[in-house]
Amino acid sequence: MLEKKKVLFSATVYSHLAAFHKPFIKLLQDKGYEVHAAANPDHGRKEEIEEMGVICWDIPFSRSPYQLSNFKAMIELKNLFQKHYFDLIHVHTPVASFLVRYTAKKYKQGPVLYTAHGFHFYKGAPIQNWLIYYTAEKLARRWTDGLIVMNKEDYDNGTKLGFKENESLFFTHGVGVSFDQYSVSTDSSGYIRQQLNIADNDIVITYIAELIERKNHIYLLRNWENILNNYSNVHCLIVGTGRREEDLKKYVEQNQLKNIHFLGFRKDIPEILSQSDIVTLLSFHEGLPRCIMEAMVSGKPLVVTNVRGSRDLVKHGVNGFVVDLEDDQSLVESFAKLINDKNLREQMGKSSFKEIQSYNLANVLNEMQEIYSHFIDRN
Questions:
Q1: Residue 76: CB partners within 8 Å, gap ≥ 6?
Q2: Phi, psi of 256 (to 5 degrees)
Q3: Rounded distance, CA 227 to CA 371, Å?
Q4: What confidence tens digit (pLDDT) does each residue in 327-364 have?
């Protein structure tokens, strides 16, 4: 009996694989491949991967390139690659992907694919990001058989790194979004509004993001009083957790900002979106934000910052507004236009749903299947 071909998925932590790559793991399992995963068990969700029948290898990757644990990770990768040959390796997240690509090529593994979920070097990034991460990717080019990107800026940078279109450089519509899961009609129970004592005709702005510096919640909060001065019936739902949670709550308290609701980690995102009127994300940088894709499937108008990824999804004046970072006046005016005009919200919401069609998970699975076949079939 022929031994099954083996595929390895790798990322810094299992939670990344659980959040974004379970459909692609299942795609390869359904085709008869034995799937393995290598990641750090910190941050949890390893059990979700194991429950799929994936063979897991705990590797002590660190998100920071400066941590000594990455040297131990390389030793453990060496041991893994000496025991197993993988016909295909698909890597994610910058540091883990660099270590896996280098070690895999050293120990003569099969083709290695890297999905860039947003290069750490980008237009406007600090110079040290370019010095560290661009240099690292330039080195890793020789160990990377295929680069997968999901926004135009990263695609352009991929060509600068020397990757060739449809040969070693591939564009996909992100990690996809399940239309069945997020196409939720307006929830008749309205339980979220009821729990928060928000009236049916009040306007709800929802901000779904990890509470970290990069997601730039403070941009909205510092302008919130100005918004409320004109529209007292507006509420903001902040969904997520993160290391800046206490700082943001303290800012709200100290500035006596009203109608701000911190909801923490939630599993009922489709229901929250169904009861929202506007969705916003004001990050300093993005790859291709999943929360914006989800909002678009839910038929919502958007207000986002003019950064890579967000501007790939939101067309200014079509399905929302794209504002520059630090442009407080434009931010407030964009919200005002949507708060004032229900017809505009509905029109832009319909445009969101139209614009998101290519990002359907079923379509992305087909895109990835073609890429996988391109490398596995030739291996």
A1: 57, 59, 60
A2: 50, 45
A3: 47
A4: 999 999 999 999 999 999 999 999 999 999 999 999 99
**Residue 42 burial (C-beta neighbours within 10 Å; 0-12, 13-18, 19+):** middle
* Separation between Cα atoms, residue 207 and residue 241, nearest integer Å: 12
CB 182 within 8 A of CB 292: no
**What would the pLDDT profile of 93-103 be if each residue is shown by its tens digit?**
999 999 999 99
Neighbours of 244 (CB within 10 A): 17
State the Cα angle at 32 between 28 and 36, rounded to 5°: 60
Neighbours of 47 (CB within 10 A): 12
- What does the alpha-carbon distance between residue 311 and residue 238 come to, in Å, rounded to a whole number? 21
- The separation between the first and the last C-alpha atoms of the chain, rounded to the nearest angstrom, is 20
Query: What domains appear along the chain, each with residue ranges and CATH number?
Result: 6-176+360-376 (3.40.50.2000), 179-359 (3.40.50.2000)
The bridge status of strand 112-115 relative to strand 88-92 is parallel
Q: What pLDDT does residue 124 have? A: 87
Contact 112, 104 (CB under 8 A): yes
CA 59 vs. chain centroid, Å, equals: 22
In angstroms, the CA 375 to CA 379 distance is: 6
* 8 Å CB contact between 338 and 344: yes
**pLDDT tens-digit profile of 6-55?**
999 999 999 999 999 999 999 999 999 999 999 999 888 999 999 999 99
Locate 362 and state its tokens. 């079923």
Say if residues 194 and 231 touch (Cβ distance below 8 Å).
Answer: no
Q: Which residues pair with 360 in a beta bridge?
A: 177
Residue with tokens 């295929």: 146
